[in-house]
Amino acid sequence: MSDTATPFGEILAAVTPGALATGALYVGRLASGAPVEIPYVIAKGAKPGPCLWLNGQVHGDEINGIVAALDFARGLDRAGLSGSVVVSSTANPLAFDGRRKKAPQDDIDLDQSFPGSAVGLSSERMAKVFFEASAVADVVVNLHTMGTTFDADPYAVYKVHPNGRASEAELLRLVAPFAPAVACRMSVAGGTGELPGNLAGALDYQCLDRGQIAFMIELGGGGRLVTEHVAQGITGFTGLAQRLGLIAGAVDAPASLRQVTKRRHVTCAEGGIFRAMAKPQTIVPAGAPIGEVMDLHGEVRERVTLPFDALMIGVRRDPVVHFGDRVAFVAEAWSMVEV
After folding, report:
1. What letters, b where the CB count within 10 A reaches 16 and e where it falls short, cover 25-50?
2. Residues 79 and 211 in one domain
3. Are 236 and 318 within one domain?
4. Do 175 and 307 belong to one domain?
5. Which residues of 104-126 are buried (b: 16+ CB within 10 A; e: fewer)?
6. What's 210's domain CATH number?
7. Domain tally for the chain?
8. What are the C-alpha distances in Å from 33 to residues 29, 59, 64, 122, 126?
9. Rounded-to-integer distance, Cα 81 and Cα 17, Å
10. What is d(CA 300, CA 274) in angstroms, rounded to the nearest whole number?
11. Contact criterion met (CB below 8 Å) for 61 and 223
């Protein structure tokens, strides 16, 4: 059942303690008249406590987070739960239906569109509806995967807001139960070499801006469902819920994390077939090849190297490349930090 007017705080309050409730937030209609809705699941504890919001995806081809969040919420013992867990399986139903990162109606990156606009394009309107609803949460986890052309092990990304409620040390402590391959501090400033666009428009950064705790978990690669990455996500949600006091139990988390403070994409200069020579979580020495590009005559046209030691975060799995395509995502600067 969709809701078009009731504030989400009232929806949450109306759920019986100890119950599981489902529904959807109405966004608009397609030309055919079909409604566009953001589905949600509420697992409400028998006892009062904080609200943890898990957003399965803002990008339509990133699947692992959806399944991990739904399995976690539906598997909770609500009689022992203090507070609520809300899952929005997708904040971007248009992109999800299109099996692509962005909504085909406007080709806008939803995770650069928050807090959204009630009079904007389709993605901006979805962002507005979602952002207003998620204001009830104490903690928001924005789930992603790396793009469909990449292989990656689960890792964390967090941003530090100058007026944020959570310190960098606290954010690292909260991502630790996910046992991330790396924990990346991401700048929202332009020109950093990470991503183009409005990085301050990311869901987690806008949540930080309004006083919530928020971060991103990248659960592997996109366009596919990987059982072990889903399981790692559920383990992370469990530890996070324990740290927040929603559920009882000792937190299983590493005592230190590999913190990345500078990262960048690596592109190729030639087109052809990319043959990867490195895997995620490996360190490739300066001058050693990450991979090579072979042309359709079988000749190696390019060996992709870097002038610095690089920690592999993601490596391209789709072998067909054009000049300028991304073939790896690497850390330039990292260190071990205690959490």
Report:
1. bebeeeeeeeebbbbbbbbbbeeebb
2. yes
3. no
4. no
5. ebbebbbbbbbbbeeeebbbbbb
6. 3.40.630.10
7. 2
8. 5, 23, 30, 15, 17
9. 9
10. 10
11. yes
- pLDDT bracket for residue 68 (50, 70, 90): very high
Among 288, 258, 281, 309, residue whose Cα is nearest residue 151: 281
Please tell me whether the overall predicted TM-score, pTM, comes out greater than 0.90 for this model.
yes
Q: Distance between CA atoms of 331 and 326, rounded to whole angstroms? A: 14
Contact 255, 103 (CB under 8 A): no
Walk across the sheet containing 300-304 and list its strands.
Answer: 300-304, 291-294, 272-276, 320-321
For residue 115, whether the previous peptide bond is cis, meaning omega lies within 30 degrees of 0, is yes
Assess whether 273 and 155 both reside in one domain: no
Amino acid identity, residue 190?
A: G
| Whether 250 and 310 share a structural domain | no
Cβ–Cβ under 8 Å, residues 116 and 128: yes
Same domain for 299 and 275, yes or no, is yes
**Does residue 95 carry a pLDDT above 80?**
yes
Nearest Cα to 44, choosing from 248, 244, 246? 246
CB 280 within 8 A of CB 151: yes
- The domain in which residue 118 lies consists of 2-254
What's the CATH code of the domain at 318? 2.40.50.100
What is the pLDDT of the chain when averaged over all its residues?
96
Question: Taken in order 9, 12, 15, 16, is the CA torsion positive or negative?
Answer: negative
